[in-house]
Write a structure and sequence with these properties.
single chain; about 220 residues; mainly alpha; 10 helices
């Protein structure tokens, strides 16, 4: 699937000035959330992203994200259509390094999105997430060859692609019921805004994984 058909170019144009996370990670986050929730409105998306401390999306990008989420929910709800789901990553005309890093970012986004749904996992789902975390933990320098080359990439891509298909069988809930924003009015101030006003303590910096300190992604 090329970049025009997959929507890669459309997303790239809509989110070119928004740099909080990559297109792939945002798409993964959206997919993870949509395996357990109903499609959010634009305002609900804005609230979720704000509570995750992301900068506001441009209007066109927010509309695109909302429409893509609706399509994804519709696709994943249908057993036949679900198998046609594809993560948003660059096509095979892009360098292998770029595609591997894109899939890594998508995997991390999915785990974030699914993580905030606070759903219980079956043993099989837990095992799949552990394997997806391995994709999210890939370390690769730009001038370093990916072990296994194209064949290995296609294998992990196909595995990642099937994770949302496998996760999407659960009953969905409204985004407003997520613990992340539960009880928060849609027009309420975000955590970030309250911190800026000094009404909430600023978050502690994240603790770095010791193994990652000398191996930046």
């Amino acid at each position: 699937m090329n970049d025009n058909i997959s929507g890669w170019n459309t997303w790239s144009n809509a989110i070119e000035d928004w740099t909080d996370v990559s297109i792939c990670e945002l798409h993964g986050l959206m997919t993870g959330l949509m395996t357990a929730c109903n499609a959010p409105t634009e305002q609900e998306w804005a609230t979720v992203l704000a509570e995750l401390s992301f900068a506001p999306l441009p209007d066109a990008a927010l509309t695109l994200l909302t429409e893509e989420a609706e399509d994804t929910v519709f696709q994943l709800k249908d057993k036949d259509d679900a198998y046609a789901y594809t993560p948003l990553v660059p096509d095979d005309e892009h360098d292998l390094y770029e595609r591997v890093m894109a899939l890594k970012q998508w995997a991390n986004g999915f785990m974030t999105g699914f993580g905030i749904t606070d759903c219980r996992l079956t043993s099989e789902e837990n095992e799949m997430l552990m394997d997806l975390a391995k994709i999210g933990g890939i370390r690769l320098e730009e001038d370093e060859e990916y072990e296994g080359g194209e064949e290995s990439y296609l294998y992990i891509y196909e595995f990642a692609r099937m994770v949302p298909v496998s996760f999407a069988t659960r009953k969905r809930k409204p985004v407003k019921e997520l613990a992340l924003i539960s009880g928060l009015a849609m027009d309420a101030k975000t955590t970030k805004e309250l911190q800026a006003e000094g009404k909430l303590p600023k978050p502690m910096p994240p603790v770095l994984d010791v193994m990652n300190q000398n191996n930046p992604s």
